[in-house]
């Protein structure tokens, strides 16, 4: 049996298709066998006040789709445009590869994969922002 296996800490919360699920008092493993389920660990979620940089704003947009708070069809084009805008700043080969993966994920409708790819750019963005004095 394939699928995603999540290992949860006690009291850890996650969002599955818009529903918040909280683990009990012990560690556990959950197998998600539905291939298109939208899943987000709440410990990894960005809060609105944290979405203050370009990469974080795009991540937050993808997160809203995963949480069911944004319609994927209406959000797809704006996400693709914002990712394209990032490609004007992140010009190194590694970043371009990440942006290409994020773009492909949006086109496939896999917003978790997009979010995961873009989150890897956050440390680079932080370094760029620090270097520019922001």
What report would you give on this structure?
The protein has 134 residues and is of the alpha+beta class. It contains 5 helices and 5 strands, in the order βββββααααα. The strands form 2 sheets. A 3-stranded antiparallel β-sheet has the order 3-2-5, covered by helices on one side. A two-stranded antiparallel sheet has the order 1-4. The longest helix is centred in the C-terminal third of the chain and has 16 residues, at 93-108. It is globular, with a radius of gyration of 16 Å.
What's the tally of helices? 5
Q: Give the class from helix and strand content and strand pairing.
A: alpha+beta
Secondary structure tally: strands = 5
The SSE string, one letter per element, is EEEEEHHHHH
Number of domains: 2
From the spread of the alpha carbons, the general shape counts as globular
What is the helix content? 40-55%
Rg value: 16 Å
- Which range does the strand content fall in? 15-25%
**Straight-line distance between termini:** 48 Å
Report the sheet with the most strands, covering strand number, pairing sense and barrel closure: 3 strands, antiparallel
Strand order, largest beta sheet: 3-2-5
Contiguous uncertain segments of 5+ residues = none
Rounded average pLDDT: 91
Q: What is the element layout, followed by pairings?
A:
Blueprint: E1 4-8, E2 13-16, E3 19-22, E4 28-32, E5 39-41, H1 54-67, H2 72-86, H3 93-108, H4 111-119, H5 122-131
Antiparallel strand pairs: 1-4, 2-3, 2-5
Provide a compact summary of the structure.
By secondary structure, the protein is of the alpha+beta class. The chain is built from 5 helices and 5 strands.
